[in-house]
């Protein structure tokens, strides 16, 4: 049943208060009714019929008051409130009319009996109607929530299929093409180039193809990081950082690296976490204008989290860049590119954090915090104080 309610006059947000106020008013009516009857010495007050009427009325009033509280605190849209009240008013009217018909067909000798009967019918009808309205509102909300969840799941499945398709294209088509370009450019530089200018052009092609491969790989990692819920496990951070430092020296040539990495430090992550430190270390060298880049990697294992600081002797990061350093950017030529956006996304995946701890003309320090793996917390904490840096 739908009872018309002018929402322009009655704000839906205030309806729960009105319902509670209605319950209070009904309770006052019962109290006043009993007081008047007692003052007039009406014998009907002492009868079992009147007592049963009051006993059945009070729980219904309490139910109406609770209905107002429930509407205000339940996970129900305010747009459902008028309909619930409509059910209550409808129940009140219908139940009252039915009982008025009974009163007419079965007349009573006492006007007190008639008044009490009508009051009982009003309260019971309003209470039952409100109960039906609340149950209906909750059922509608649950149905809509289930439909929305189903649509979201369907959309996510389609999106996941599309992302898998893009991932396949990147991996098998674009990345392979970049590798071929890099290979032929290397052959041109070594065997076909006869002048310094030609060799320089070949080196530009090689550098750009390597940059393309890096960006493609980062995009693939981003696609993997959105592949459903992360399956996190203990990852040996000590070994991972040692491997990434070695890759850094192989890729960038002469780099001074100082490490303080205690053994057997594990974090709660997955295999993609290697890309976090790979990108941070590469950025520390790539954007470094010192004659000899110097990088330091320090691990501080704690009982709940593991903190890793990666510092360099580069020129620092401009203040204008700091605010958007980890955001997506359309161009990576003058920034830190997709790499740092990928780092932030992965840290969100692991419930970790990454930030610029310090930056200036003497260099930049990135701080990474990851949840410690439960099985390695105590071991890592003790090793941090008993093991000398490698």
TrEMBL record:
| Transferase among keywords | yes
PANTHER family, sorted:
SENSOR HISTIDINE KINASE GLRK, TWO-COMPONENT HISTIDINE KINASE
Domain Histidine kinase: residue ranges: 169-374
Matching entries from InterPro entries are given as: BphY/WalK/GraS-like (IPR050351), HATPase_C_sf (IPR036890), HATPase_dom (IPR003594), His_kinase_dom (IPR005467), HisK_dim/P_dom (IPR003661), HisK_dim/P_sf (IPR036097), Sig_transdc_His_kin-like_C (IPR004358)
What is the uppermost EC class here? transferase
Highest taxon above the source species: Archaea
PROSITE patterns to which the protein is assigned, alphabetical? HIS_KIN (PS50109)
Keywords, comma-separated and alphabetical: ATP-binding, Kinase, Membrane, Nucleotide-binding, Phosphoprotein, Transferase, Transmembrane, Transmembrane helix, Two-component regulatory system
Q: Where is this region: Disordered?
A: 371-390
Q: Name one Pfam family in it.
A: HATPase_c
The record's GO molecular-function terms, alphabetically, read: ATP binding; phosphorelay response regulator activity; phosphorelay sensor kinase activity; protein kinase activator activity
Which GO BP terms, alphabetically? Answer: osmosensory signaling via phosphorelay pathway
List where Polar residues composition bias occurs.
375-390
In the UniProt record, does the keyword Transferase occur?
yes
Catalyses which reaction(s): ATP + protein L-histidine = ADP + protein N-phospho-L-histidine
Q: Where are the transmembrane segments?
A: 18-38, 50-72, 84-105, 117-135
What this protein is called in its record is histidine kinase
SMART domains noted in UniProt: HATPase_c
- Give the enzyme's EC designation: 2.7.13.3
């Amino acid at each position: 049943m739908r009872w018309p309610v002018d929402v322009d006059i009655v704000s839906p947000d205030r309806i729960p208060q009105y319902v509670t106020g209605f319950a209070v008013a009904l309770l006052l009516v019962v109290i006043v009714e009993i007081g008047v009857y007692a003052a007039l010495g009406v014998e009907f007050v002492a009868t079992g019929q009147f007592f049963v009427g009051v006993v059945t009325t009070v729980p219904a009033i309490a139910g109406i008051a609770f209905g107002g509280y429930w509407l205000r605190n339940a996970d129900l849209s305010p747009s459902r409130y008028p309909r619930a009240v409509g059910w209550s008013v409808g129940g009140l009217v219908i139940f009252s009319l039915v009982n008025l018909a009974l009163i007419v067909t079965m007349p009573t000798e006492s006007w007190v009996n008639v008044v009490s009967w009508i009051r009982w019918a009003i309260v019971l009808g309003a209470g039952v109607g409100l109960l039906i309205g609340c149950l209906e509102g909750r059922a509608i909300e649950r149905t809509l929530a289930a439909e929305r969840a189903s649509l979201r799941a369907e959309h996510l499945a389609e999106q996941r299929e599309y992302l898998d398709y893009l991932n396949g294209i990147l991996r098998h088509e674009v990345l392979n093409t970049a590798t071929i370009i890099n290979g032929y450019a290397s052959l041109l530089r070594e065997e076909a180039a006869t002048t310094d200018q030609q060799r320089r052009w070949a080196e530009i092609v090689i550098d750009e193809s390597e940059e393309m491969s890096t960006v493609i790989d980062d995009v693939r990692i981003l696609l993997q990081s959105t592949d459903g819920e992360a399956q996190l496990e203990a990852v040996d951070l000590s070994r991972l950082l040692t491997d990434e430092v070695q890759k850094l020296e192989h890729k960038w040539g002469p780099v001074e690296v100082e490490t303080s990495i205690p053994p057997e430090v594990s974090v709660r992550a997955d295999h993609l976490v290697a890309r976090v430190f790979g990108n941070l270390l590469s950025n520390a060298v790539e954007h470094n204008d010192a004659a000899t880049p110097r990088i330091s990697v320090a691990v501080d294992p704690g009982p709940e989290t593991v903190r890793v600081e990666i510092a360099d002797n580069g020129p620092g990061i401009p203040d204008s860049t700091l605010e958007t350093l980890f955001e997506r950017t359309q161009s990576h030529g003058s920034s830190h590119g997709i790499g740092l956006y990928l780092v932030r996304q992965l840290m969100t995946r692991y419930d970790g954090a990454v930030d610029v701890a310090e930056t200036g003309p003497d260099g930049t320090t990135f701080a990474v915090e990851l949840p410690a793996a439960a099985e390695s917390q105590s071991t890592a904490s003790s090793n941090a104080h008993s093991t000398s840096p490698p």
